[in-house]
Amino acid sequence: AALRSVKLFTLSPYLSLSLLFLLLLLLLHFFFSLFPHPYFAFFYFLRGKRLAAVSIPSVPLLSDVSRRGPPVEGEEFPMKTPWGAPLVWGDSESSAWRRDEFAHHSIRTSLAILAVGKYNHFLRRLLSTAELHFLLNFYVTYYVLTDRPKELDPLPKLGSNRELKVIPVAEMPGWDTLGLRRMALLASLIGDRIHLEVDYVFCIDVDQEFTNAVGAEILGKLTATLHPVFYGQQRYYYPYEKDLDSMAYIAEGEGDYYYTSEFYGGLCSEMLALTRACSLLILQDQERGVKAQELEESYLNRYLVNRRPTCVLSPEYSWWLPLTSMAKLIRPKNSSPIRPAT
C-alpha cells in the first residue's frame, strides 16, 4: 500500500519565540499582580514573607509611608483607627499632646528583651540606643532574658532611674523555637515579677535599635505597631493565618490591620492577658502538630482581632529601611544571616 505523507503544521522559530515571550509576559503580569510592589515579590522568594533585614538603600520606601517627613494634622495620614483609637505618628501634634498628657505622671515602664544564641550579639546595641531614645523622662527597667548572662559583664552603664535585670533562660536552638517560646516566657515573667514592679511593659526584638525619640505617645492600655510592609495595602495581602486547623486562623472579613510582633506593649494586666492567651493558642497548635505561618506574629494578630489595641503606632516605630527620617526603630543590616526566612 502506498504510504501517505502527512504534512504537520509547524510554527516558524520567530513565531514560537514571540508566543513564548508573550506567555512569559502574561505570567509575570499575573505574578506581580499578587504583590503590592515588585520589590516585595522579589524578596518574597529571596527572604521569605518576613522580608528579614531588608535595609537596602536602593529599594524604594513602601506604601503610603514612603514620603519623607512626619505627617501633620489634616493630611491624608489617618490619626485614628476605625474604632477610634489613636494612630500615633511620632512628630504629629496629637503625639505631642499625648506626651504632654503623661509628662507629670509618675509612671514605671519596662522593656522586655529576649536574647538567646547569636542574638546576644545585638543586645548591647539595643540597650545603648534605648538609653538615648526610649522614654527618657520615665523610670525604665530592662528585663533581659538570655542564655548567656555572662556576656553582659560588665553591665552597661545606665542613666538615672534606669535599671537592668537579667533573667537566665535555657538555650533555644532554631528561630522557630525562639518564635514560639517567647510568648510563654513573657507570660511567666510578667505574671511572676514584672506586674509587681512596673506599670507598663513593652516587648521588642533584640535585633532592632532606636534611632529617634520614642516617648510617652506610645503609652496605652494595649499598644500595637503596624507592620511596615503591609501598611496601606489591601487586606488581601496581609499574611493572616489561612490554615483552618490553626488556632491563629483569621477568617475572610476579619481584621483591620496587620501588626508586627517586633514592638508592642501596654499595661501589665493587658500584656499578661495577651501573652497568656497567645501562648495557650500556640500550645494547642503544637499538640496537634500545627504551626502558624508567621509563628508568634500570627497568634498576636489573631488576639488583636478580638481585642483591638487602644493605641496603634505607625510603621515608623518598627521600620526596616534606613534612608528615611520617619524611622523610629530600624532593623540592622547584618541580622539576615542569623534569622532564616520563614
UniProtKB/TrEMBL annotation:
The chain crosses the membrane at residues 20-46. An alpha-L-fucosyl-(1->2)-beta-D-galactosyl derivative binds at H227, E297. The active site is at E297 (nucleophile). GO terms for biological process: carbohydrate metabolic process. It is a single-pass type II membrane protein. It is found in: Membrane. The keyword Thylakoid does not apply. GO terms for cellular component: Golgi apparatus; membrane; vesicle. UDP-N-acetyl-alpha-D-galactosamine binds at Y119, D205, V206, D207. Its cofactor is Mn(2+). Belongs to the glycosyltransferase 6 family. This is Globoside alpha-1,3-N-acetylgalactosaminyltransferase 1 (FORS blood group). It comes from Astyanax mexicanus.
